[in-house]
Amino acid sequence: MTEIPLVEHPESVVLVVLDGAELVAVRQTRPGPGAQTLELPSGKLEPGETPEQAAVRELAEECGLAAASWRRLGSFWVVPAYSTELTHVFEATGLSPAAPAELDEDEDVEVERLAVEAAWTRLSDGASLAALALWERRLRG
Asked: Could you list the active site residues?
């Protein structure tokens, strides 16, 4: 039997809530589908960085925002059958402009506001959809 190599790329996803009715999403070109996707802000952890630090950094880098309030919504294994990738999900509220941050050289990001009721049909990646599910579960108590 061929052994499948493990992949380790932990990441943080940020669900940015605006007045409970809108979310902040980012549109960017992704090499996998070879097209633009609409996703929640997210990114891989840098060496030595905590999931919380990555969430703060990604929100500043991709959206130019800082949050006054952070809540951890949970974590999930992306594909536990062959990967050690663990994704951490955070809710960010109380937004203000962040100090300018540099995007990674391969990123070309457009920030969009997204009505909560449209999120299930407009978000296009598994991490964003899982983050949305964790957030909605939290709202229901």
From this structure: 105
